[in-house]
Amino acid sequence: MAIAKNTICVWYDKDAEAAANFYASVFPDSAVGAIWRAPGDYPSGKAGDVLVVEFTVCGIPCIGLNGGPAFKHSEAFSFQIATEDQAETDRYWNAIVGNGGQESACGWCKDRWGVNWQITPRVLTEAMQAGGAEAKRAFAAMMEMGKIDVAKIAAARRG
Description:
Layout: E1 8-12, H1 16-26, E2 31-37, E3 50-57, E4 60-66, E5 78-83, H2 86-98, E6 102-103, E7 108-110, E8 116-121, H3 122-130, H4 132-142, H5 150-158
Parallel strand pairs: 1-4, 5-8
Antiparallel strand pairs: 2-3, 3-4, 6-7, 7-8
Helix pairs in contact: 3-4, 4-5
């Protein structure tokens, strides 16, 4: 996998390879590429440890950096995954939360490495794009949810 001109770098304590393998197993158009090992000792590892993992998530090029415990993830960065229906929403949500992650609000969840995900059905995005009363009703319904309920958003859109 060639390094893209613009690549997302995600900092991990020490599990970038495990995270990349998990993402590749869950999301379509996702894969693990090259694995770079440290050429020498560094503050949170030894020569030969996995340092960088190239991967893609839904076609987006990323690298995972095993940088140690100095920096933690926050909601200031998240992957947003657009879903077509409740089954796809459930599949991704359950994979993340069921693999040591945790639920949050409004379609957000966090994986076991602390990376934040927005599992967002297209019906919600379309409602927000519609604007006006339709967007207001869909937004109010979303504010009551953890995982997004597609049927409830659709009902809110209709009024």
